[in-house]
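Thread: quick sanity check before group meeting

JM: Hey all, I'm pulling together slides for Thursday and realized we never actually wrote out the predicted structure for the chain we discussed last week. Dropping the sequence here so it's in one place. If anyone has concerns about the input, flag it before I start.
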Amino acid sequence: MYEHEKLSDGITPVQKNLRSSSYLSFSLYPGENISVISTTYYQPILKNLGDYRISNQSSLRVGMFNNISLKLSYTFTYDTFPAVGIPSSQYDFSTGIAYSFD
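JM (edit): ok, ran it. Output follows.
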């Protein structure tokens, strides 16, 4: 993928890079009302493999009633060279109720 990154800090020059974008994904259904889905992305800059990003998105869904389920989601990102003032790793955990229209 081609990346054009322009920061508003007034210091960092515009970044124009080609990144590889590979991913590994799996889905598990250990029970009739349970699903686990996870996708992990690896995105190195092609001319500098030491500059990369890794991100993961995972979710667990547990059926509660007819079309209603509890959903737990976790997202993690890591960047070897983040923008100034941004941490190299970040995460988010959320819970919610999901309704399926099937």
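AS: nice. The mean pLDDT is 93. The two ends are 35 Å apart (CA to CA).
JM: adding both to the slides.
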